[in-house]
Design goal:
15% strand; 155 residues; Ribose 5-phosphate Isomerase B, Chain: A; alpha/beta; single chain; globular
Length: 155
């Protein structure tokens, strides 16, 4: 059984999928920390929930995160503003593991209005079980991306 501590967050557009994933992942052994929203509120804003979750991933308080909004795009843009967050909008099994294995992705973004529950759960399980390869070429690439974070706003 898996005891990995993960975070999950969503706005109104991803609320239903977040609730489903939270229960399903807990059932298979994940400790799931819900960063909200904890109720369906049609006028909420995804940054209010996905940013605290991304910060917790960046600080190492949780191992990985799942951010859900209507399309997944807004959540992905927002969490990638956090130093140490490496997030991607994923819609297929290959990218779910390859993003972790090669790029050390630590946040999965999903679209609650564009993806069914079965596919979302399959992708989440693949993402959560994948392991960064640590290969020299991947370490080199991840380091180059991390270097960009120290120069935000510069040309």
């Amino acid at each position: 059984m898996n005891t990995k501590k993960i975070g999950i967050s969503a706005d109104h557009g991803g609320f239903e999928l977040k609730e489903f994933l939270k229960k399903a992942l807990h059932k298979i052994g994940y400790e799931v920390i819900d960063f909200g929203n904890n109720q369906l509120a049609r006028d909420d804003d995804y940054p209010d929930f996905v940013i605290p979750m991304a910060r917790a991933v960046s600080r190492g308080e949780i191992e990985r995160g799942i951010a859900v909004c209507g399309s997944g795009v807004g959540a992905c843009i927002a969490v990638n503003k956090i130093r140490g967050a490496r997030a991607c909008l994923i819609g297929d099994s290959f990218s779910a593991h390859q993003g972790v294995e090669d790029d050390n992705m630590n946040i999965l973004c999903l679209g609650g209005r564009i993806m069914g529950q079965s596919l979302a759960l399959e992708i989440a399980k693949i993402f959560l079980s994948a392991v960064f390869s640590g290969a020299d070429r991947h370490l080199r690439r991840v380091a180059k991306v991390a270097e960009l974070e120290s120069h935000k706003g510069e040309d």
